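haha ok so turns out i had the wrong file open the whole time. this is the CORRECT one, sorry everyone. sequence first:
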Amino acid sequence: MMMMKCVAIGLLVMASVQNAAPQDYAASSVLGSGRWVKIAVTEEGIYRLDYSRLKELGLTDPASAVLYGNNTGQLSFMNDGTAPDDLKKIAFRAEKGIDGVFNEGDFLLFYAEGTHRWVTEPGSDGYRFVRHHYSDTAWYFITSQPGGALAIQTETPPAASPAYLSSSTDLYVRHEREDINLIRSGREWYQQVVPGIQNSIGQGLTDIITGGRIHYTIRVAARSDAETSFILRQGSETIRTITVPAVTMTDINGVYAATVTVADSILSSSGSPEFSLTFSSGGNMAATGYIDYADFNARAPLVWRNKNLFISDSRSAGTSTVTRFTVEGSPSLNIWDITNPFAPLAIQTTASSGNTVFMASTDSLRRFVAFSMAQVKQPVRSVQVPTQNLHAMMPAEMIIVTHPLFMAYAEKLAALHLADDGITSLIVTPEQVCNEFSGGVPDAVAIRNFIRMIRDRGMQSGPRLRYLLLFGDGSYENKTPPPGNSSFIPTWQSVNSTTGVLSFTSDDFYGLLDEGEGEADGFLDIGIGRLPAYDTASAGIMVRKIISYLQGSNQGSWRNTLCLVADDEDSNLHMFDAEGLAEAAATAAPPLTIEKIYLDAYRQITSVTGDSYPDASRAVDDRMAAGTLIMNYVGHGNESGLAHERVIRTGNINSWKNSSRLPLFITATCEFSRFDDVEINRTSSSITARNSAGEMVLLNPDGGGIALMSTTRVVYSAPNYTLNRAIYDYAFRTDAEGRSMKLGDIIRQAKVSSGTGMNKRNFLLLGDPALRLAWPSTGEVVTDSINGIHVSIPSDTLKALSLVTISGHLEDPGGNLMTGFNGTLEPAVFDKPGHISTLANDGGSPMTFPVDGNVLFRGKTTVTGGRFRFSFIVPLDINYSYGSGVVKYYAYDGTTDLNGSFTGITVGGFSDAVSDDSEGPQIRLFMNDTLFNDGGVTDTSPVLLALLSDRSGINATGTGIGHDIIAWLDDDISGAVVLNSLFRTDIGSHISGSLAYPLLVTGEGKHTISLRAWDNLNNPTVATLKFVVETNGTFRLSDLLAFPNPVTDGTKFTAGHNRPGTEIDITITIFSSDGRIVKVLRDNSLSDGYALPDIPWDGHDENGGRVARGLYLWRIEAVTSDGDKTSATGRFIIL
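then structure:
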C-alpha cells in the first residue's frame, strides 16, 4: 500500500419478456430458433463459402443460407449509445453459375472485417487505429432461412461527369507487436528490442508514391536510470533521434518505463521505403527498450498487385462530387463499396487501356475494395452454435456470468439464493453474451452491455437487478482462452501499463451502467463479486463454503467479534487508522468485541531471514481458529502476504482450519488479491496462473475466509481508510427486510459514498455479492436484572470471588418479547477497558491505544420463551479499581441469531466471601472428539479438545501473571500458546466448560500435549495426553474395543482409525468359535476424530435368537469414501 451497485436460474430461459422491452434492445434474438454455425476470420477481406462447405457446416438447404454478424471491432468502454444489439443480416453475393440455381460448384461471396481496424476520426477525413483488446478473431453467423437472404445490390453509377479523377488512395499502416505487458497490468503491450539492432517498422509501405509525404506517429518506451534514445531511420538515413528520459529504478510502484510519442512527416525516398528503429542504451547494460507502435500514412497509387486492394481517397470527398477511379493492372476487377460493411454494394466497372475504371458519388468519404476471384479468402474455422435467446430473458435480481465448466455450481448457488432469499437469477456464459452483443467476438464490454439491458428492463417492469456474480478466474492477458489461460471471465483493464499507481483492473466496470459512464468513471449501480474458480475443484470449494456459511450449525459468538490487524510502519499511521476503524465499528455495532493485533505491540524478532513478529502471527492464527466475523488488516502488503514482516503468509493461510467460522476479510493494503496475475513464458508462450494470497484465503478448503473486500493493485492509505470506514458505515445495518446486509450491497454503497477517486476501483469483492454478512440482526438481547435488582436501579458491584446472577430477555426489532425463541445464549462479561503501549520496534514514538477489558466470564445458558438467566463467579484476577465493565451477548437457535450489550455494570473490589477450595480444575484431554484414547494415532493437524471443571469456576481472564490457560507440545513450555479466549462454559453451568484448539505437529512419531489451567481462586492443574502422529500412512484400524467384555446383555464395538473427517462405511461380522457367522452389523461414520462411533449389538443372531455363552470373534471392515479399505479382528466372551 502506498502513502500519500422464479428459479429463473437463467439456464438461458427462453421465456419471452412479459412487458415490452426498451426500444434500444431487440425483444428476441435471431439465435432463438434455427440451426446456427459461426465461422471465424482473422483479417479483412472478401471471403468465399462453397456450397459443399455449407453442407459440411450442417445447412440442409445451402440455397437458403443467410449471413449474420455484428462485428464492430472493439466496443466502446463508455455507455455512449454506440453499442450493437443482437446480430444483423449481412448482404452477400450468391454465385449460382449458368443454371441460375445455387447447387454444387457454386459459392457465396461476402465481405468480412477483422477485429482490429482503422476507423474514421469524427469531424475529419483521417483514420485512427483501434486494436481489439480481447480477440484477434472475428466471427460471422450462418443459418438457413428460406427467402431471408440479403443480396448485395449493384449501385447505379452517377450520371454526372466526374469532378475528380482518382488514381491513388490513402494508405494506413501500423507496426505493432504485443509481446510483453511491462507491469502485468493494463491494456498496453510492447515489443521488447535489443540495443543496437535495427527493427523494421514499415512493413506494408509498398507501392507508395515516390517523393510523397509520409506522416508517422511513433510511441516508444524505455526503462533505465539514465537517458536513452531510439534512432529512426529511412533506409540508412537517420530521420530523428527520440530521447527517452530516465526513470527511478527503485520506485517499484511509480513509473516503470518512460514513454515518448512523436509525430511528424517526411518525404519518401522510394516507392517501398524501409523504416527502422534502433534502441540505444547509452552503454547502460540494465537499460531495456520497447516499441509500442508505429503508424504511417502515405499516398499509394491504385495499382493491382494480385491481392485485395482497399481504396479510400480522402481527396475525393466533397459536396456533390463525382469521382472517377482508375485501378491499374487489370481490366476485370470486382469493385465493392464497403463503406457500410453490413450492406456492401457492387460497383459497375468498365475496362480502359487494361485498367479497371468505375464512377461513384463521393459526397462523403467512401471505402471500396478491388478483388479478383483468385484472391478471395476462406474462413479459418467453424463452430456449431446452440440456440439461445438472452434478449428474451425476463429481468432478475442477480446475473451470474459463468464459464460453462462451472455451470453446475452456478446453478447450485442460484438455487441456494432462491431458497434463502427468494432472489431470482439469470445464468449466462461469456460466449452466449458475446454471440448476441458483440457478434460472437469475446469482449468484456458485451457483458457490460447485456447487464445494462437487464438492468434497464428491470427498472421498467421489475424486479430490479441488484447483483452480478462473475463465476471464474480472470487474467490480465485477455486474448488466450482457457484451458491455456485463467481468463474464464474477461477482465477490464485500465489503459496504462507503465506506471504502477495508474494501472489497475476493476470489476466495477460491469456495474457502471448509466448513460455517459464507463471505463472506471461513474457510480456503481449493482453489487459485484467474483469467485475466482480455475477448475471444478476450486469452484466446489467456494460453493461448499457459501452453503456452510448459511447453515445454522455454524452459529456462535465468533459472529460478535471484529479483529483489527495494523502494520507498524509510517509513523504509526496504520495503527491510527485502525483506531479510527475501531471507533466507527464500535459506534455502529456496540455488541462487537474488537480484538486489536497491532504489530508494534509485540516484540519484533530480527534474524538472517529478516524481521518478524512471531507472537503477532500466532495471535492472528489463534483468532482465526477461535473465529471472527471480520478480519481487517491495515498496512503494507502484496500478493504473497501482509506486512513487511510477513505476519500473514501463504503458509499461515493454508494451515487455517476454521471451516465453521469463516470471516469476511478486509485488507486495506496493496495487491493482496491480485486475482488476474499470470506468468507468461515468452519462449513457449505458455501461460501459468498465479494464485494471490487473497485467492488462497477464499480457496482454502478447510477454512480461510468466506469472502474478501480486498485490493488488486497498488493503493494509497488515505482513500483506503475512507473506503474501509465507509464499509463499516453499512456493514452493521439491516436491509428493508430487517436482515443483515448482503456483501454486494455493503461494498457498492461504501464505494458510492466514498467519492469519485480511482483508488476505490482497486478494491473488489472476491465472494458472492448476494451472500449476507453473518452479523446477528433479528433483534436485541436485553439485560433485565443483576443479582435480582432491576438494571434501572443501581446494582451491586461485581467484586472478585462474588457470585453474580444476570437475567434478561430477547426482543424483536419492534421491541416485542420473542416468546417463540428457544435456544442458546453466549454471554461474555468484561472488566474495565485497559490500555496498551506499543514498543516502537522500528524507532519513532510509542503509541498507547485502548483495548477491551479482560473477560471475567464467557459461558452458555439456555433461552426459553425468550428469557434467560445465568450465574458466574468473578475471578480473583481482576482490576480491583472500580469502573464500568460491559456484558455482551450472542443468542441463537439454529435458525436466527441476535446480539446485544449492557454497559451498566461496575467492576472492582474484593468480595467478603470465603472459600475452602484449594484444588485445581479437573482436566480431560482428547484429540478431535471424546472417543480418542491416550496414546492414539492422529495426523499432523489434530484438534486438541479439553474438558475442564472446578467448583470455583475456571479462570480465563488472562489478567493474573502466569494464570492463563496454556498448552504446549513435548515438554517445551517455552512454546506454550494461550487459550483463554477459546474457553466456553457448558450450557447453564459456570463451573465446567471446554475449549478446542487446532494443533500443527511437524514430526511423525510419539508426542505429548500438556495443558495447564487455573480455577478462579488460582489453584492450578496440569494434564498431559500422549499421541502418535502418522503422515501419509495406510488406512488402518487400532485399539479395537468391545465394551463391556465379558458380555451379558449386549455390547458396543469401536476402534481407532487414522482418517479423521472422512466418511467411512463399517461392517462388523461376529463369528462363533467354529467360524460360523452369527451376526452382521453395518454402519456409516463421518467423524472429526480418530475413533469410530460406538456400534451397539444386543446379543442376538441374524434370526433374532439369543446367542449362547462362549468365546466369539468379531471382524471389522472399513471402507473410506475414497475407496481405501482395511480390517481388523478382536474377540469377546458372552457369559
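The radius of gyration is 37 Å.
again sry for the mixup
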